[in-house]
Amino acid sequence: MKAVLFVGHGSPLDKGNEETIQFINNIKNKINVPIIETCFLEFAAPNIASGIEICVEKGATSVALVPIMFLPAGHSKIHIPHAIDEAKEKYPLVHFTYGRPIGIHEEVVRILEERVTAVWEQEEEHTDTALLILGRGSSDPDTNSEVYKLSRLVSERLNQQTTEVSFIGVTTPTVEEGVERCLRLGMRKIILVPCLFFSGVLMDRVEEKMDAFRKNYPDNEFASTDPVGFHPRLERVLLERTEEALAGSASLNCDLCQYRQFAMEHMDGLDHHHHHEHSHG
Predict the structure, then answer these.
(1) What pTM, to 2 d.p., does this model score?
(2) CATH node for 2-103+231-266
(3) A GO molecular function for this record (predicted)?
(4) Angle at 143 between CA 153 and CA 17, to 5 degrees
């Protein structure tokens, strides 16, 4: 019997976790699998091990894990595959497959385009407006580079010449550094575009930064788009990732990934009770 186990990041704020669960509930009837469950990496229950246990107890002989995460990073490259490795040892008769994160996808670019145009004044030419794309920030350079790629795709879609990138935590440039760069380029209006799925700690932090920018730069205009949110377009991408995971055709190969093998050997411990330099949203 097949099962799909969606893996959300988890947030210290209940609202973010509830949004994740509601999003999965909305697409369950579009997945032709008898067992569909949701778990979280941290901050919320059940965790991955418990989520797998629930699937097995319901009779699953094959479990496809699908990460509800924006970009491939340490969580999707290391922590979830490690949990799968442990599950394979615990349940040797159960078959496990693993899907890809959302990643760079045409539908994601379209969502961000919609988010930006919703706060643009249509009559403006936007020559003195900058877009500042906000990534979560990661210790994995590959993940951060994906934010730059996404920024370029959005810029070309909107024909927006001044588009900069910054990160909310962990790495640089910071949001403050991104804003200062836009101001030095002569921009009057700056639109912050958070690449986040849901409401949570990081979106609260973005709002706090917006208040500070308006206070510190009273002659400039600042706006922020809504987060990506659990948009119908995102639903289509997640269903695509689910089909890949069920078919075992996801191209992210974590069993043989040298990056993961090296990281596992050098991490202090893989029990996922880590504390990053930023709060998760």
Answers:
(1) 0.84
(2) 3.40.50.1400
(3) metal ion binding
(4) 95
pLDDT band for position 272 (50/70/90)?
very low
CA distances from 250 to 97, 111, 254 (A): 9, 23, 10
What is the per-residue pLDDT across 36-82, written as a single tens digit (0 to 9) for each? 999 999 999 999 999 999 999 999 999 999 999 888 776 678 889 99
DSSP state of 108: H
Residue 10: C-alpha distances to residues 21, 43, 185, 191 (Å): 10, 5, 37, 27
Q: Is the pLDDT of residue 273 over 60?
A: no
Give yes or no for a contact between 195 and 112, defined as CB atoms under 8 angstroms apart: yes
Residue given tokens 């490259």 in the structure block: 77
- Name the residue with tokens 């799909």: 4
pLDDT of 114-146, one tens digit each? 999 999 866 566 789 999 999 999 988 999 999
Give the three-class secondary structure for 52.
helix
For CATH 3.40.50.1400, the residue range(s) in the chain are: 2-103+231-266, 106-224
CA distances from 127 to 58, 163, 179 (A): 58, 11, 16
Q: Which of 156, 153, 159, 162 lies closest to 106, judged by CA?
A: 153
pLDDT at 236 over 50: yes
CATH code assigned to 106-224: 3.40.50.1400
Q: What's the pLDDT score for residue 257?
A: 47
The span from the CA of 271 to the CA of 16, in Å, is: 23
Best CA proximity match to 280, nearest among 204, 223, 202, 185: 202
Q: How far apart are CA 7 and CA 41, in angstroms?
A: 7
Bridge partners (DSSP) of residue 95 are 62
Cβ atoms within 10 Å, residue 250: 19
Q: What is the largest CA-CA distance in the chain?
A: 65
